[in-house]
């Protein structure tokens, strides 16, 4: 069915009159009538009852109108997405995220995005989990990644992935053969800490919070790269989500094991965006791109 014929049919059904539809669309009434008759011939049944008061849909006409409404809506949405693609060829996007995502996940995603949108530029900043919400809400950043928790209505999560805090260690560590590590087992080994407070969502597990507070780190650093190097050198264990160590885990250098505590394993990281705020075409495209990448993480 030709798009014009669908539009003529929809407008006639909406206005209940071929003449009114012709005036609205600025086409000849005979042209609209001809298209409607052709549709009726194709379906082999009347689509309208011709009444003295106007045109009224038959049951078959109701079915066709429902199909047309969906089809034209999908077409309009496709046109908008194509327009977005054209407009997104250049521009700047700002992102803020918890540090672990800047090491592996975001660089991979941005490199893939750059292949399709080479003229787009980025600023990517590591910030504390609590600051992500504020910066996205106050328009200091287009996109954020942080631990999922209750948020104000000014922001919302576009996509989420499971991201429990667990134990990161060398592949040959004695605990590497465990399916899950207890707090007592982890406490028997030196601890390497990243500077800064725990995400507030970690409060969901009071036992983990008490365990973490009781530890005296062998090393504290605000550089996750330094902590990674120290883990590889066997200086101790560290407690992170696996998302900052995807490459090392894939290559078999390091392993990640969950804690044997149910609450800490419910933690999630999400793609945070402002609610109801218009964003630039490149930012909108990157949001969709990152949401797809988050979905892929769920099956790794």
From TrEMBL:
<keyword id="KW-0805">Transcription regulation</keyword>
<dbReference type="InterPro" id="IPR036390">
    <property type="entry name" value="WH_DNA-bd_sf"/>
</dbReference>
<dbReference type="GO" id="GO:0003677">
    <property type="term" value="F:DNA binding"/>
</dbReference>
<dbReference type="Pfam" id="PF03466">
    <property type="entry name" value="LysR_substrate"/>
</dbReference>
<comment type="similarity">
    <text>Belongs to the LysR transcriptional regulatory family.</text>
</comment>
<feature type="domain" description="HTH lysR-type">
    <location>
        <begin position="1"/>
        <end position="58"/>
    </location>
</feature>
<dbReference type="GO" id="GO:0003700">
    <property type="term" value="F:DNA-binding transcription factor activity"/>
</dbReference>
<dbReference type="Pfam" id="PF00126">
    <property type="entry name" value="HTH_1"/>
</dbReference>
<dbReference type="GO" id="GO:0005829">
    <property type="term" value="C:cytosol"/>
</dbReference>
<keyword id="KW-0804">Transcription</keyword>
<dbReference type="InterPro" id="IPR005119">
    <property type="entry name" value="LysR_subst-bd"/>
</dbReference>
<keyword id="KW-0238">DNA-binding</keyword>
<dbReference type="InterPro" id="IPR036388">
    <property type="entry name" value="WH-like_DNA-bd_sf"/>
</dbReference>
<protein>
    <submittedName>
        <fullName>LysR family transcriptional regulator</fullName>
    </submittedName>
</protein>
<dbReference type="InterPro" id="IPR050950">
    <property type="entry name" value="HTH-type_LysR_regulators"/>
</dbReference>
<dbReference type="InterPro" id="IPR000847">
    <property type="entry name" value="LysR_HTH_N"/>
</dbReference>
């Amino acid at each position: 069915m030709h798009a014009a014929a669908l539009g003529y049919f929809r407008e006639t059904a909406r206005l209940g009159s071929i003449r009114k539809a012709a005036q609205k669309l600025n086409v000849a009434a005979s042209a609209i009538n001809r298209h409607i008759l052709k549709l009726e011939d194709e379906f082999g049944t009347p689509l309208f009852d011709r009444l003295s008061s106007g045109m009224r849909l038959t049951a078959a006409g109701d079915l066709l109108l429902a199909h047309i409404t969906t089809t034209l809506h999908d077409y309009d949405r496709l046109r908008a997405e194509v327009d977005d693609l054209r407009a997104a060829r250049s521009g700047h996007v700002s992102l803020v995220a918890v540090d672990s995502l800047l090491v592996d996940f975001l660089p991979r995603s941005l490199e893939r995005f750059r292949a399709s949108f080479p003229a787009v530029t980025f600023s990517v900043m590591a910030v504390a989990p609590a600051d992500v919400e504020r910066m996205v809400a106050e328009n200091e950043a287009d996109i954020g990644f942080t631990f999922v928790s209750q948020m104000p209505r000014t922001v919302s999560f576009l996509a989420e992935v499971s991201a429990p805090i667990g134990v990161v260690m060398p592949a040959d560590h004695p605990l590497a053969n465990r399916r899950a590590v207890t707090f007592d087992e982890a406490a028997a080994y030196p601890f390497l800490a990243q500077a800064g407070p725990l995400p507030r969502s970690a409060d969901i597990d009071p036992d983990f919070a008490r365990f973490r507070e009781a530890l005296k780190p062998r090393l504290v650093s605000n550089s996750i790269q330094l902590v990674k190097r120290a883990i590889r050198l066997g200086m101790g264990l560290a407690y992170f989500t696996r998302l900052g160590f995807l490459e090392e885990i894939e290559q078999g250098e390091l392993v990640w094991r969950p804690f044997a505590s149910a609450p800490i394993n419910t933690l999630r990281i999400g793609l945070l965006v402002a609610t109801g705020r218009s964003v630039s075409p490149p930012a909108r495209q990157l949001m969709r791109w990152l949401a797809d990448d988050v979905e892929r993480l769920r099956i790794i």
